[in-house]
Amino acid sequence: MNRRSLSGLSGRVDNPGLTHSSGRSESSGLSGSSGGRLSAPATLSGLSDRDLLTRVNRLVRREREITYEILHHLNEVERRRLYLPLGFGSLFDYCTRHLKYSRSAAWRRTTAATCIRKYPEVRALLEKNEVNVSTVSRVASVLNHQNKDTLLGAIRNKSQREVERILTGYKPPVAYGDRVKPVCVAVPDVYPISTQSRRNSLNFQSRCGTNIASACGAGRSPKGTDSGGLGGDQIPEEAHSGGDLRESSVERPGL
After folding, report:
1. What is the mean pLDDT of the segment spanning 144-151?
2. Considering the entire predicted model, what is its pTM?
3. What is the separation, in whole angstroms, between the first and last Cα of the chain?
4. Domain count, the chain
5. Assigned domain for 247 exists
6. Domain hosting residue 95, numbered range
């Protein structure tokens, strides 16, 4: 599809290839000698090790430059709110649904774009490649005009793990409030007795030879037990003869 066909679809073509001040199109550098097309794997296999590494370094450097330009374009889209006529409620929504960025990639770019708009010092660090978009998006939540000089100087040329360690001194501690949550536990009306427990109880009663529960409930000793030679229903001889019962406190059950 030629440029005339593109003009018929969109009305005009703005800045094709992201041309820089040198006049060289960005897309031409990605293709090598293929005339505006991306390099095929077969073409890359014919490169020497040194040439391949040189091209990778050049492409990564150009990728950073393009990413930096994308941030400026996103800021301009935000300033004009061009996403609203397209049916998107925010710049983040525009990046995820229209530009097809992932949510994490869209969050990093929109956050970094806002940060370089507020703080020109961040823009200078990005141009020098002393910080990247991921680092800028992480420090944006704690960066302000009071700590910008100290914080930006501390994160310069640092890894992500080092940046996270530095940010722990700027983030306030999270205070968790105590909460009491009632817990409802379903309790059955009758606790079932296991078969083994019932079997043990029956074996114990059979060894004793008497119903201990009924004997204790009647308030007397089980029949047949030795209680000084007297059974549960026996009365001492002193009771029949009218003798003094203080010597023996055995009474007839039920009286």
Report:
1. 91
2. 0.53
3. 119
4. 1
5. no
6. 67-167
